[in-house]
Amino acid sequence: MKLIWDDQNSILQLSGSLFHYYGLERGHGTDRDVDAWLQKRQPRCVISLLIDAMGISILEKHLPKDSFLRSHLVKIISTVFPPTTAAATTSYMSGYSPAETGWLGWNQYFREKDDELVLFFSKGMYSDVSYEPDFVSSVLPVKPIDECLQEKGINADSVWPGWGRHNGCETFDQLLTKTLELSHDNAFLYVYWDVLDTLMHEHGVEEVIIRDTLWEYDRQIEAFAGRLSSDTCLLITADHSQINTRIYDLGKDEELCACLKGAPSIEQRTVSFRIKDGMQETFVRLFEERFHNDFVLLRPKEALSLFGPGIPHARTEEFIGDFLATAVSDLQLDYHRTRIMKGNHAGFVREERMIPVILYQKQ
């Protein structure tokens, strides 16, 4: 099966429009609709609010058309491949594709540590060993847009959930209050919130708790927008969406695991495999027997183009591994996990990858 990912109408161009508005350029173009909107309104401050996993399928499932978020929807775009936080937020904040940054997914195999590391925390995915806090950032350095603007002498900042080391907020209301405060003295704010993603992992995408949470966000954002000054605009998007998933316990498949050189990495729905010498044909046969309806299995050269345009980072193909499998159904591959995820993302299903572009400015 030939897999093609749309990277011409994506979060990369949305990021490019933000860089362009402030006189900085990235190499993957801009979103013309967003360019026109910003040029017409010329906001003093742009607030970019990214709500993790609030894809268009989730908005349409739980909010009516006349809700604040849906009524200010300007367009629908795709995220990057794979549709997951580590890849997508890194691309959005930097303007570079996952191929260029080397940030491909939640965890990746680093030969220096002989371990699969969670990128955000420099911690072993399965070993739970903690490494130097800046190890991943030293191997895969990325400069976010707020830092780029600061270097140009433009006031910019960011706001995070409670775990953030900078401007951390325990509740969504606190996040919006902090953002409003910072908007008076900054030309750009990147604001990130992750609770919706966590809730859908735990409960799936259909449950009442998801609807109620999204309704509350909609109400709070509408009130927040009403308090913004008329020279401030609000751009709301997501890094990916989610779908309900089925689970295959790969860790218990002794025959298939006997082919592996180590634990799989990247994500549960886009999976990197390192294969023992002489076991590649056996691995391909066993994998196709089990998953031919659920996953597409790719060799590194075939998979590389999916991770976006640009010159790949020197480590990207290495992180892809000997084979990359991406889900085309609702199945995910678990490997020695203790946490059951009812909802998930990072595969090739359309519902996972389509995200909103929501724009608001007080008239």
Description:
By secondary structure, this protein is an alpha/beta fold. It folds into 2 domains: 215 residues, Alkaline Phosphatase, subunit A (3-Layer(aba) Sandwich); 101 residues, Gyrase A, domain 2. 36% of the residues lie in helices and 21% in strands. The protein contains 16 helices and 18 strands. Helix 1 packs parallel to helix 2, helix 1 packs parallel to helix 5 and helix 9 packs parallel to helix 11. It is globular and about 65 Å long.
Helix fraction by DSSP (H/I, runs of at least 4) = 25-40%
Tell me the overall shape.
globular
- Averaged pLDDT, please? 96
- State Rg: 20 Å
Count the E strands: 18
Summarize the SSE layout with pairings.
Layout (H helix, E strand, L loop, with lengths): L10 H11 L10 H10 L3 E7 L4 H7 L5 H4 L1 E6 L6 H10 L3 H4 L5 E4 L4 E4 L4 E2 L10 H5 L5 H7 L4 E6 L6 E2 L2 H12 L4 E6 L1 H9 L4 H20 L4 E6 L5 E2 L1 E4 L4 H4 L7 E2 L3 E4 L6 H12 L3 E4 L1 H5 L11 H5 L2 E5 L3 E4 L8 E2 L5 H4 E8 L2
Considering the chains and any ligands shown, give keywords for the structure:
363 residues; alpha/beta; Alkaline Phosphatase, subunit A; Gyrase A, domain 2; 2 domains; 4-stranded antiparallel beta sheet; 18 strands
